[in-house]
Amino acid sequence: MGEEIVHALRGLDLSIGSNELVAIMGPSGSGKSTLMNILGLLDVPTTGQYWLDGRDVAQLPQSELARVRGRQIGFVFQTFELLPRQTALRNVELPLTYSGGPNRKGRAIEALERVGLGNRMGHRPNQMSGGQRQRVAIARALVQKPSLLLADEPTGNLDTQTGEEILALFTELHQQGQTIVIVTHEPDVAERCKRIVRIRDGQVESDESC
Amino acid sequence: MLILANVQNALEQLWTHKLRSLLTVLGIVIAVASTITVVGVIQGFTSYVSVFLQNQGTNAMWVWPFRPPGEAGKRLGRVELDESDYQAIAMNCPALKRVSPLLRRQSAKVRVGRDEITSILEGVSADYHPIRNFFVDVGRPFSAVDVERGHHVCVLGREVLRKLNAGEDIVGEWLLIDGQRFRVIGLLEEKGSFLGASQDDVVLIPYTMAFKMYPAVRRKIALTASALNELVVPEARAQVVNLLRRRHSLEASQPNDFNVLTQDEILENFNKLSLVATAVLSGIVGISLLVGGIGIMNVMLVSVTERTREIGLRKAVGARRRDICLQFLTEAVALSVVGGGMGIGLGYGLCALASLHPQMVAVIVPWWAVVLGFGISAGTGVVFGLVPAIKAALLNPIDALRHE
Ligand SMILES: Nc1ncnc2c1ncn2[C@@H]1O[C@H](COP(=O)(O)OP(=O)(O)OP(=O)(O)O)[C@@H](O)[C@H]1O
Ligand SMILES: [Mg+2]
Asked: What pLDDT sits at residue B1?
């Protein structure tokens, strides 16, 4: 078959402080998603370390990875990834069914209200607009009160206007103290962020705070 | 809590794919339905037969002349059982309470005036009634004198009355049995039918009269007897066997030239029969479960593929491998248990249908058959759901999320 070995990331060193709003930019294929997957513990680096909240989580066993993923990380995808047959409320509740804990419904309602969907809780994804769907997905990422909120091109499937609204929501969450990393192609999206990290060929090309 | 969510989720999946689910569980429906039906029918027959045997008189046994098959049988002399054997058994078997000859003719002509019918004729002694638990409720039974002297008296079963279009006032009247005049002295209580054959279609006469009418049976009589109690049935049997072997001068190497059958043995034979039926059932159930199980495995594999992205998402929000595994196992089990439930319903339906047949016994579905039905369906779900569930659990979250 002759599969080529691709080093999606190589020699990358990045540190993100709490309550930062970081934009990650770079050309297609530069390794942005790969980085996000590692930050989100969906993928593990072949070598290297990843310290999250003072703990090296890169080489944790599977079940522990799932636990950390569930409790400390909120992931927002470009394609929303909602369960199509379930209501907004049940979609948001989903992470809580795995981590347990009391008052799941109350916490899910609270998260939905935070993203401005208090009046859409009983709707299914196909009864909502793209922007509303992405809000549900953000509520789902927030419901565990994660240390790190990751969003890989969250506005990629939305029109400019709706994308703006979603970004405004991220800014608002950041102001409330949430640590956020957003991957984006759009410069005006990046402008809202306090720090822009540019990646090229799996390496940090520039890292500027403004 | 997770289990509850899993069950709810599983039922929703089932409901979303109603037709697919229905077709998938067909094998399990058949397996469980046939279990319920066959077990119900067997149980029905078993209780029917044991009630019948109770009605035959408890601790009853039968003896009749019999040439065993094969060389040893051919080398025996004349195979006979006669009145002197009967007398000897009556005198010398302490474990027996009562014994009566039983000379049976399958069709005897019974005639009253112009009406003639055929019925079963039995030549018996006065002890016959308590042995067979078959009593006279109008008129009187045979007395010892009737039998000793060979009086021309008879006792009729109720079915004979019906065939003759006669009422109970026939007691005291005269009728012709195979050309001989008999006076009716009593009527037997109604006993009902067994497996569609009436037990009341019988005419009793003293066995001494039967000897006179049919001299050929003198040397080939059958006996019916009852033991003192349930516990001594085997002992009574042994006494009869020893006595008859001695009387017939059989050597140790020779087989019996008669047969002894006790109620226990009848029940045992019947139980052997139900065992065969159960074995056949197990075959059917096994094959349908295999078919049903493969169906479930197939549909679950399809479901895992269809929902690869969902699995990826669930992992991304914190589901561990065992959570995903449990989710899909729950779905497989829900599928098969719903099939099992439908099978139980269908089984009861088939039992009800079978009961509609006029000659069918009352079908009894025992509770353990229902439990067994649910058990085997749930078991099938677990066994055949395991492979798809593990496949789902081992998916890599990013690959799953990238799945088209
Ligand atoms: N599963 C995979 N197998 C092999 N190579 C892969 C795989 N996933 C990603 N890559 C490679 O890794 C590199 C980085 O991919 P990545 O998806 O991180 O890029 P990206 O920066 O997110 O691009 P885009 O902006 O188009 O989303 C690319 O060269 C890609 O071809
Ligand atoms: Mg990408």
From this structure: 60
Q: How many domains does chain A have?
A: 1
By the CB criterion, residues less than 5 angstroms from ion ligand 2 are: A 33
- B67 CB-near residues (< 8 Å, 6+ apart): B73, B76, B79, B257
Which atom of ligand 1 sits closest to the CA of residue A31? Answer: 18
User: Can you give the residue range of the structural domain that contains A140?
Assistant: 21-209
CA dist B229 and B6 (Å) reads: 60
CB pairs under 8 A between A and B: 62
ipTM: 0.94
Q: What's the rounded Cα separation, in Å, for the pair A119 and A116? A: 8
Choose among B2, B12, B317: nearest Cβ to A70: B317
CA of B309 to the centre of ligand 1 (A): 18
Ligand 1: residues within 6 Å at CB?
A 6, 8, 26, 28-34
Which residues, including other chains, have CB under 8 Å from residue B213's CB and lie 6 or more apart? Answer: B178, B180
- CATH number for A53: 3.40.50.300
Residue at token pair 């020893």: B242
Closest ligand 1 atom to the C-alpha of A202?
Answer: 14
Going by alpha carbons, the residue nearest to atom 3 of ligand 1 is A6
Q: Average of pLDDT values for B349-378?
A: 86
pLDDT for A2 beyond 70 = no
Distance from CA of B303 to the nearest CA of A (A): 14
**A67 within domain boundaries:** yes
- Whether the per-residue pLDDT at A1 is higher than 70: the answer is no
pLDDT at B342: 95
Using CB atoms, pick whichever of B1, B313, B315 lies closest to residue A97: B1
List the single residue in A with minimal CA-CA distance to B313: A81
If you measure from the C-alpha of residue B306 to the centroid of ligand 1, how many angstroms do you get, rounded to a whole number? 24
- Spell out the domain ranges in chain B: 2-52+268-402, 67-256
Can you give the three-state secondary structure of B208-276, one letter per residue? HHHHHHCHHHHHECEEEEEECCHHHHHHHHHHHHHHHHHHCCCCCCCCCCEEEEEHHHHHHHHHHHHHH
**Average per-residue pLDDT in chain B?**
90
pLDDT tens profile A49-77: 899 988 899 888 999 999 999 999 999 99
Which residues of chain B have a CB within 8 Å of the CB of A137? none
Least distant ligand from the CA of A39: 1
